[in-house]
Fold this sequence. Notes:
There is one protein chain. The protein has one domain (about 1-25, about 35-115): Phosphoenolpyruvate-binding domains (TIM Barrel, Alpha-Beta Barrel). Helices cover about 45% and strands about 10% of the residues. The protein has helices at about 1-10, 35-45, 60-65, 75-85, 95-105, and strands spanning about 20-25, 55, 70-75, 110-115. The chain has a 4-stranded mixed sheet with strand order 1-4-3-2, with helices on both faces. Helix 3 (about 60-65) links the parallel strand 2 and strand 3 (about 70-75). It is globular. Mean pLDDT is about 80; it is low at about 1-10 and about 15-30.
Amino acid sequence: MMLRRTVSSIAASFKPASLAVVASRNHWGPSGRASNSAKLKEMIRSPSLEFLMEAHNGLSAKIVSETGFKGIWASGLSISAGLGVRDANEASWTQIVEMLEFMVDASSLPILLDGDTGY
């Protein structure tokens, strides 16, 4: 899957420190539509207050997308807790990326990932 290779290559290039990745089903925007990366940048640069709802797995990402939020916040703490480990770098990058893939498959919203797990 293209996303798995993209996210895996991004994750492999970072050291286990604070990581923010924009996950997007369509990095380049299909048929002229803004990509999720562009949507997230627009929200960040917007003069108005924008809200992202936290999600930690595919089901919660689906719920966020159906409740009308414009984006998803995926925190290292909640993903670690969902995996049953402490937020002390006990979740592997493979587990984080795999959970992110489930979230991307469940929602078309941009996802801001706080990928650090305890640092």
